[in-house]
Amino acid sequence: MALDEVVADTRAGRSQVLVLRGEAGVGKSALLEYLAENAAGCRVLRAVGVESEMELPFAGLHQLCAPLLGQLDRLPDPQHEALSVAFGLRAGGAPDRFLVGLAVLSLLAEVAEERPLVCVVDDAQWLDRVSAQTLAFAARRLLAERVALVCAVRTSEPAAGGDPWRGLREITVQGLRDDDAGALLDSLVPGRLDARVRDPIVAETHGNPLALLELTRGLNSGGAGRRVRSAGRAAAGEPDRAELPAADRGAPGRGAAAAPGGGRRAGG
Ligand SMILES: Nc1ncnc2c1ncn2[C@@H]1O[C@H](COP(=O)(O)OP(=O)(O)OP(=O)(O)O)[C@@H](O)[C@H]1O
Ligand SMILES: [Mg+2]
Predict the structure, then answer these.
(1) CA of 211 to the centre of ligand 1 (A)
(2) pLDDT in tens, 196-235
(3) What does the pLDDT read at residue 211?
(4) What is the model's pTM?
(5) Where are the alpha helices (DSSP H) in the chain?
(6) Residue nearest (by alpha carbon) to ligand 1 atom 7
(7) What is the per-residue burial (b if ≥16 Cβ within 10 Å, else e) of 176-212?
(8) Which ligand is closest in space to the CA of residue 210?
(9) Cα 72 to ligand 1 centre (Å)
(10) Considering the chain, what is the average pLDDT of its residues?
(11) What is the pLDDT of residues 240-260, one digit of tens each?
(12) Phi, psi (5° rounding) for residue 181?
């Protein structure tokens, strides 16, 4: 899988940049979790775009770099000063964005000298604009620094004023393949669904795991999940059981979730 290669290549001294794009609920965050969990031996830095912080310049970058603030003095003076001003550690007017970009690049490269570095940015569509631009600037200049930058961007949220991530290597995250979506659905409802019920649901949701989870969520409260199951029984000519114990249900994501991305539809 591309994500496994990202870590392997980073460890081998080939910097990697990957933008995961996909609709809400398709599994981008789950893939980032998988990446972070499988980055043994690497230092992992994280940031998550927050809608309410979109107007705060450098907020996202500050999140990502917070654990590295003690190392700013490893930077050349002009970069040190620019990043210190950006992060409010030093007084000054609006910092030179080019210098801030260089500072971030230098900082990541410096830190990666000790251990390969994996930067994971979720909900990047909600990063403040200058943080996204700065990270993309650094990403375009990564070469042999043992640094990976992997971002998740929700496709349904078009970036105002142009897409800062354009031009970087990207993958479109698609829904689960039909058999994996079916297995997930089966793990969410008691017993086994009739194919005449399961298949249209899989087709309708395009294997979007969140859609599958939400469809079955009302199982115990008599919502959609119960309807799914009831419809399954009806289609199979079986009597409907009013209440089914929660303990019968598989844990969400068992099977298909064991290897996120492993069972996905072909990505672009
Ligand atoms: N391969 C999988 N198998 C089972 N469940 C999964 C899988 N991938 C994701 N999920 C589950 O589907 C739900 C949505 O996944 P996730 O949060 O990763 O989506 P997302 O693409 O990050 O969505 P958003 O754009 O809203 O952030 C979560 O509950 C997650 O645990
Ligand atoms: Mg997410």
Answers:
(1) 9
(2) 888 988 999 999 999 999 988 754 355 444 444 433 333 3
(3) 93
(4) 0.84
(5) 2-11, 28-37, 59-65, 77-86, 97-112, 129-140, 178-188, 195-205, 209-217, 224-235
(6) 257
(7) bbbebbbbbbbbbbbeebbeebbeebbeebbbbbebb
(8) 1
(9) 36
(10) 84
(11) 332 222 222 233 333 333 345
(12) -65, -40
Q: What is the arithmetic mean of pLDDT over 9-24?
A: 95
- Ligand 1 binding pocket includes 30 (Cβ within 6 Å): yes
How many angstroms does the Cα of residue 228 sit away from the middle of ligand 1? 20
Helix, strand, coil percent content, the chain, rounded in steps of 5: 50, 10, 40
> pLDDT tier at 262 (50, 70, 90 boundaries)?
low
Position in ligand 1 atom list of the atom nearest CA 123: 27
Which of the listed residues 1, 20, 21, 26 should we mutate to test ligand 1's pocket, taking the one with most ligand atoms within 8 A of CB?
26
Burial class (CB in 10 A: 0-12, 13-18, 19+), 267: middle
Which CATH class, in words, describes the domain spanning 2-172? alpha beta
Q: Which ligand has the shortest distance to the CA of 181?
A: 1
How far are the Cα atoms of 47, 125, 128, 164, 224 from residue 51, in angstroms, in the given order? 13, 9, 8, 16, 30
Confirm or reject: Cβ of 175 under 6 Å from ligand 1: no
Distance (Å) from CA 46 to ligand 1 centroid? 18
CB 146 within 8 A of CB 11: yes
Does the Cβ of 253 fall within 6 Å of ligand 1? yes
Boundaries of every domain in the chain: 2-172, 178-258
Phi and psi torsions of 22, nearest 5°: 175, 165
